[in-house]
Write a structure and sequence with these properties.
- This protein is α+β, with helices and mostly antiparallel strands and 409 residues long.
- Among the domains are: 87 residues, Immunoglobulin-like (Sandwich), CATH 2.60.40; 118 residues, Serine Threonine Protein Phosphatase 5, Tetratricopeptide repeat (Alpha Horseshoe), CATH 1.25.40.10.
- 60% of the residues lie in helices and 10% in strands.
- The strands form two sheets. It has a four-stranded mixed sheet with strand order 1-6-5-4, with helices on one face.
- A hairpin with a 2-residue loop joins strand 7 and strand 8.
- The C terminus is likely disordered.
- It is found in: Cell projection, Neuron projection; Dynein axonemal particle; Nucleus.
């Protein structure tokens, strides 16, 4: 059945715009098929068909169509300013109509292809711009990391210089104390020599008095004997054994490798962690008694990690860290969970925090430091930040950390 040509329509114009009203009963935006080019306008709404072979070209890109109230209203913008004598060309044969249709289809295909290519070019430009922005962001992050490293190096250098100055001042103070002690000993020796010389003079005086006056001999002998008694040296003590007890050392380190200052700092940190663990946190009163123990939460997180429930393990470690943020093993275990979940930046953050708490570098925390270095390095490698990993690793690891890491590998 051939389509029904629509002849009943209204149109009006100005010098730049043509308004076309096409009545179609029951038409909706999803039902009508509208095709428009510079010289051809077609509306297909089965069983109705409307075609217009425009007498002058229009701007098909900016022209608009509005569907509603059983009517399609077209707003067609003219390419050339002027008034039209008619909407459609008159006396158009079938061959000419077919040529106009084919030309319009080719124009529409060409415009669609150009539009697709333009969209592809715009997409490529957007991707290139996004890549450029990402590279700038990464470069800024890399520069920020380098600045942080440089600040840490400067801080470490200043701390080392301050420590050397402190050691120098301590040595000078000790030398001053030794000089004062030596001067006190010399004064005591001089006083002792003076006392001996006075005793000798007294003895000589007594002897002269004895020779002059024999009647006073007994009294002189008495005085002389008392003086001799005062100068008598006491008898040596009896032979015996003296028991000496030494304070036990916490770290079994040889004396030639002793790091007393570092060991004392480590013990102070452990004592501080135990003190914080025993403190009462008011906002956690609703927890059970065992849930207030960071060690119990740590064991719970380890069991959840063993069952590959990494999110639950992270929650357990988070609560333990909230109770006590001075235990390095909590950050170390949480870094392992983040590494399993591919949260690489959080892995680096927790490993770094664990390394900050695992100071000073002593034998007892060497194994934990090795684990932190391995997990942090793994995250760097998976992020493909190889240069940052090598620079950081060479700047932060001690000889003991390097030794344990190579043994593990």
């Amino acid at each position: 059945m051939p389509p029904l040509q629509i002849r009943d329509y209204n149109w009006q114009q100005t010098e730049s715009v043509v308004y076309l009203s096409l009545p179609l009963r029951g038409v909706r935006p999803g039902n009508a098929d509208i095709f428009c080019t510079e010289n051809y306008l077609k509306v297909n709404y089965p069983p109705f068909l409307f075609e217009a072979f425009l007498c002058a070209p229009i701007d098909d890109i900016n022209s608009k169509a509005k569907i509603g109230n059983d009517t399609i209203v077209f707003t067609l913008f003219k390419k050339e300013i002027g008034m039209w004598e008619a909407l459609s060309l008159a006396n158009v044969d079938k061959e000419m109509m077919q040529r106009i249709r084919e030309k319009s289809v080719l124009q529409a295909q060409t415009k669609a292809k150009e539009l697709t290519e333009a969209k592809a070019v715009a997409k490529r430009e957007d991707e290139r711009y996004a890549l450029k922005i990402m590279m700038e962001i990464e470069e800024n992050e890399r520069k920020k990391i380098e600045d942080l490293k440089e600040n840490e190096r400067g801080k470490a250098t200043r701390e080392l210089e301050a420590w050397k100055e402190q050691q120098k001042n301590s040595a000078a103070d000790e030398e001053k104390i030794q000089r004062e002690v030596k001067m006190c000993q010399q004064k005591k020796q001089i006083e002792k020599e003076r006392k001996k010389s006075k005793d000798k003079k007294a003895i000589c005086h007594i002897k002269s008095m004895k020779s002059k006056n024999t009647t006073k001999g007994n009294s002189a002998r008495t005085i002389f004997s008392e003086t001799l008694k005062d100068d008598c040296v006491p008898a040596p003590r009896s032979i015996g054994n003296i028991k000496i007890q030494f304070t036990p050392r916490v770290f079994p380190t040889a004396l030639r490798e002793s790091q007393v200052a570092e060991e004392e700092e480590w013990l102070q940190k452990q004592a501080e962690a135990r003190r914080i663990m025993n403190e009462d946190i008011p906002e956690l009163h609703d927890l059970k008694e065992e849930e207030k123990n960071p060690e119990w939460l740590k064991d719970k997180g380890n069991k959840l990690f063993g069952r590959e429930n990494y999110l639950a393990a992270i929650n357990a470690y988070n609560l333990a860290i909230r109770l006590n943020n001075k235990i390095p093993s909590l950050y170390l275990n949480r870094a392992a969970c983040h590494l399993k979940l591919k949260n690489l930046h959080k892995t680096i953050e927790d490993s770094s925090k664990a390394l900050e708490l695992l100071t000073p570098q002593v034998a007892d925390n060497a194994s934990a430091r090795m684990k932190a270095h391995v997990r942090r390095g793994t995250a760097f490698c998976q992020l493909e930040l190889y240069v940052e990993d090598v620079v950081w690793f060479s700047g932060k690891c001690s000889r003991l950390d390097f030794k344990n890491t190579w043994v593990t590998v």
